[in-house]
């Protein structure tokens, strides 16, 4: 799987996505991830990639041409056009289901907006989907881009130690995750639930499911199916 991120701040993305599990997956060749400086694709001698908005208003708008040229350069090195995502507060809200869908794609190209956003014409021409990571506005698309890359990449085979590392997590199966405990058995007078010490896998699985349903009912009742209510 390959990710290409078009951004004004490639070092920012590299600093995060070059570390921890995703960084190790890149080094192992399990995923490819490239951060492209949009300014490298402008024809302006001063490397400008933005201009004032038509119709007036505050702020600046990123120009279509540098983003389009960046996308074209990436496409030239691929055997098929990538799925193009624009990170935008106007997009559909990102979910675990969407992360799972993206993890099965071969090539993803992510556009990070900045300032007041990007020229609508490049969105209309090359973008397949606009995605938001929540109902709030950030200073740029870099943090959201890193979120979707991390969420999708960790489900690529081999990135995590086993499939169960993500299939038993919150949201994957429609429930929030059950509580976790580790050594010591007693900490600050609080004990680990006895069932987890029995080694009885069927009872442990039942307890975990019960806890998951309870936590989901308390915190996100909207997620519960009719069967679980």
CATH topology of the largest domain: Alpha/beta knot
Rounded average pLDDT: 93
How many separate helices? 8
Ranges with pLDDT <50 over ≥5 residues? none
Radius of gyration: 22 Å
The share of residues in helices is 25-40%
Approximate strand percentage: 15-25%
CATH architecture of the largest domain: 3-Layer(aba) Sandwich
Number of strands: 9
Shape: elongated
Spatially, the strands of the biggest sheet line up as: 2-1-6-5-7
CATH domain class name of the largest domain: Alpha Beta
Along the chain, the helix and strand elements come as EHHEEEHEHEHEHHEEH
- How many independent structural domains? 2
CATH superfamily of the largest domain: SPOUT methyltransferase, trefoil knot domain
What does this structure look like?
By secondary structure, this protein is an alpha/beta fold. The protein has 2 domains: 2-153, SPOUT methyltransferase, trefoil knot domain (Alpha/beta knot, 3-Layer(aba) Sandwich); 168-223, tRNA(m1g37)methyltransferase, domain 2 (Trp Operon Repressor, Chain A). Helix content is 34%, strand content 18%. The chain is built from 8 helices and 9 strands. It has helices at residues 10-17, 20-27, 64-76, 96-102, 120-126, 142-153, 164-167, 201-219; strands at 2-7, 32-37, 50-51, 61-62, 83-93, 107-112, 129-132, 186-187, 190-191. Strands 2-1-6-5-7 form a 5-stranded parallel beta sheet, with helices on both faces. Strand 8 (186-187) and strand 9 (190-191) form a beta hairpin. Helix 1 (10-17) runs parallel beside helix 6 and helix 4 crosses helix 6. The longest helix has 19 residues, at 201-219. The two termini are 38 Å apart. The mean pLDDT is 93.
